Amino acid sequence: MNDKxxxxxxxxxxxxxxxxxxxxxxxxxxSQYSCITATNAEDGIRLFARERPLLxxxxxxxxxxxxxxxxxxxxxxIDPDAVVILYTAYTHVPDVVEATKKGAFDYxxxxxxxxxxxxxxxxxxxxxxxxxxxxxxxxxxxxTDDTLFYGAIGGSEVMRALFEKAKxxxxxxxxxxxxxxxxxxxxxxxxxxxxxxxxxxxxxxxxAVGALPDNLLEGELFGHVKGAFTGANIxxxxxxxxxxxxxxFLDEMSEVSFDLQHKLLRVLQDHKVRRLGSVxxxxxxxxxxxxxxxGPELLVQEKRLREDLFYxxxxxxxxxxPLRERREDIPLLVYHFLRQYRQFGxxxxxxxxxxxxxxxxxxxxxxxxxxxxxxxxxxxxLAQKSELDMDDLPEDILPHQKKMFVQVxxxxxxxxxxxxxxxxxEKQYLxxxxxxxxxxAKVAKVAGLNRKTIYRLxxxxxxxxxxxxxxSAEPEEEELPDDLxxxxxxxxxxxxx
Length: 497
What we know:
- With 497 residues, this protein is of the alpha/beta class.
- It has four domains: 4-137, Rossmann fold (3-Layer(aba) Sandwich), CATH 3.40.50.2300; 148-321, Rossmann fold (3-Layer(aba) Sandwich); 327-399, Helicase, Ruva Protein, domain 3 (Orthogonal Bundle), CATH 1.10.8; 414-496, no CATH class.
- Helices cover 46% and strands 13% of the residues.
- The protein is built from 20 helices and 18 strands.
- The protein has helices spanning 4-7, 18-30, 41-51, 68-78, 93-101, 114-139, 157-170, 186-195, 214-222, 239-242, 258-270, 296-301, 307-313, 330-341, 354-362, 368-382, 414-437, 440-447, 451-460, 482-496, and strands spanning 10-14, 34-38, 55-59, 84-88, 106-109, 148-149, 152-153, 176-179, 204-208, 223-224, 236-237, 247-251, 272-274, 281-283, 287-292, 316-319, 351-352, 387-388.
- The strands form six sheets. Strands 2-1-3-4-5 form a five-stranded parallel beta sheet, with helices on both faces. It has a five-stranded parallel beta sheet with strand order 9-12-15-8-16. Strands 6-7 form a two-stranded antiparallel sheet.
- Helix 7 packs across helix 8 and helix 14 (330-341) crosses helix 16 (368-382).
- The longest helix has 26 residues, at 114-139.
- It is elongated and about 100 Å long.
């Protein structure tokens, strides 16, 4: 068995023609792959069972031996998740259809260029790695001190650093302001700071200050005495008193009026609170953790947060990145929620297919971890089998993912099928870049294309532009040289033909 490093780049190549085999191996080694070779199907199958390479690349037609379809069947019998790519010099549509139905990852023509061959191999390698990660997470949800902070989960570098900083913050008594998009887990981090602090045995009191009008919020925070207002029939301590010696979490601070912000500032300065209708002040010892969906400096600039209050609340600032900026955490979160909800539906769900997991990783998640959690609960609740797949993805979240690949049918020849798939891929690729980078200039730079080419592709694929109110259709950077532009135009003309 190869070690993890070598097996992560290992490809088994099976071909009965030595010259073809040597050519493929040479090409793959130039791309930093390690190769295992076999000149017949029988030896290839035995090598697969022993070495378990990341991917199998097999000739379809091998006279006097088992063919590529049989290799596909037996390899996937050994490992149902095996990634197999078949190639041949002859295009026979029924064979393509059969190979696809039996689980082949892709089908390549030998006459194609090395570049055309390497692209599906790279996709296959990426897919296979995802499967291995999927299998690992299935068997063991590896949550350690550096990947788990109270209820927050993250194995990415940015989240490990955040958890480490939060632990250092917990050891202090300073006020903390946490900011991040909705659904990123600000309250969970706040709870984690509390439960890692010396106040862990006292109360953690969360308050959604933006959800209450000022008159109600003031009474909730400061409390009131009997007779302070109509309906005040008893003395009632406020949440500042309830949280005494513990932690008070103020969420959505940007929604509080300036008048009430001033009263909060007085409490933070004096460490005293006075109930509504009372003249008596009570001393309190409360740690304040606040949260906002926006950067605090921006809130001060927009006059939504008093500057003096900001400096009191944000002695230490902690930013939580959105889920789309830490996609490597998605598999870990998916399996965490899968384990949490797997018995909630009509069947017990044990795993998720690699293509469905990859689709979840590719989605932008505007609602962040909370949206992912809801999506997993939805999928499990409606699941009809023990493995979630693409059909289980919520339509309102990932409608485009299910339509990522066109259906290859027997009435399409090889060129037609390939052209249809490429067209659909082009559109999705361009839409993703436009959504991410917002400007034509940036998209052109990332794609390595001229801006005129980008505009032409937008028109050809019927893509809405600008994508949203923040997008700009104006060029910002210099175009590529004319010779490159002309080369791109020629390539597009050939594709159109």
